[in-house]
Amino acid sequence: MMHNSMFSNTMWAGHWLWMLVMAVLVVVPVWRICQRIGYPGWMAILILIPMVNMVLLYFIAFADWPSNRNVEGKA
After folding, report:
1. Which H or E element spans position 18?
2. N or C: where does the chain have the smaller number of CB atoms within 10 Å of the terminal CB?
3. Full-prediction pTM beyond 0.70?
4. 39 within 8 A of 66, measured Cβ to Cβ
5. What residues in the chain have per-residue pLDDT under 50?
6. Contact at 8 Å (CB) between 48 and 20?
7. CA 35 and chain centroid, separation
């Protein structure tokens, strides 16, 4: 049986703080990668959704990047 104690409430808040920090540490670099390869930065939010994050990684790895299409068109 769980008791309402200050320690358990602190652990709960600490958990969500830790999850927020980890989300920021993951989303910010993916946001920059998406922007650099020519996709909208908001796609980085998808990295937080289980299984969708794997689809996003494979999409980024194997799709034709819009930024490369612009370079190839100029050559």
Report:
1. helix 6-37
2. N
3. yes
4. yes
5. none
6. no
7. 13
